[in-house]
Amino acid sequence: MFALLAILANVAITVVSAQDPVSFNTSSTLFGSLTNCGTSGTPSCGGDPSQENLCCYEYPGGLLLQTQFWDTKPSTGPVDSWTIHGLWPDNCDGSHASNCDPNRDYTDIPRLLREQGADDTLSFMERYWVDIHGRNERFWEHEWSTHGTCYSTLQPSCLRHGSPHGAEAVIFFRRVVELFKKLPTYDWLAAQGITPSEDQTYSLSELTDALKAASGYTPAITCSGRAINQISWYFYVRGSLIDGEFVPIDSPLDSSCASSGLRYYPKSG
């Protein structure tokens, strides 16, 4: 039952780039493979879907957003880290589908993770993938049913024969957690002298320039009024979401914040 997840545990997440910025390239050797896709194909949004195996080419949602929260009212998660919102497969034109397969609206995500040997992923989620109202399980269920079921490369038919029920959801949560660990937004801002403050204000360009200097890429920042509260890092994926490569790109969308006077409030703890 744990064979699929045991292999997955040894698959290191790979982030690649044509520009290959040293600060962001976290390429690692794959110690195992869950698919026959490989990582040498065309990244999503770059090929002809009619000619592709959709178990190995993400379509139609080939524009991936790894979204993170900065919640202060109420505060959620560690005071020195952003938290996970999700990993969304937007269409290449910026539109998106949702709730793509109600038959796979799995519940009791913690049980699913434990039964398939993903206790470490669950422990991380309990700290870094948290709901502002404390309804974590409902939040995880929503992210899977709304976004996770829309990945073409996570269709059950794309998994190995004999994979346990719900294995594709477990893979989804593992991959989101692994990618989030490669995107330390708080640390990247702090490295450029931008830290939470009750008094300091920042310009949008200060924030985006700092993150680009640290990562090599420009994300999209979302604000509530003048307070920054969400960030989205954009990717294409080469191969399957299961064991493919994430290809980072600059955000195709502008940030939704004002140009100046932005607040990065501290969490209360």
UniProtKB/TrEMBL annotation:
Keywords tagged on the record: Disulfide bond, Glycoprotein, Hydrolase, Lyase, Nuclease, Signal
Concerning CDD domains, the annotation shows:
RNase_T2_euk (cd01061)
Any one GO biological process: RNA catabolic process
Q: What is its EC number?
A: 4.6.1.19
UniProt keyword Cell division present: no
Q: Which Pfam families match?
A: Ribonuclease_T2 (PF00445)
InterPro entries registered for this protein in UniProt: Ribonuclease_T2_eukaryotic, RNase_T2-like, RNase_T2-like_sf, RNase_T2_His_AS_1, RNase_T2_His_AS_2
Its signal peptide is 1-18
Give any Gene Ontology cellular component.
Answer: extracellular region
Note the PROSITE patterns from the entry: RNASE_T2_1, RNASE_T2_2
Name the enzyme group at the top EC level. lyase
Q: Where is the active site?
A: H85, E143, H147
Q: Which GO terms describe its molecular function?
A: hydrolase activity; ribonuclease T2 activity; RNA binding
> What family does this chain come from, according to its entry?
Belongs to the RNase T2 family.
Q: What is this protein called?
A: ribonuclease T2
Q: Which organism is it from?
A: Russula ochroleuca
Record lineage: Eukaryota, Fungi, Dikarya, Basidiomycota, Agaricomycotina
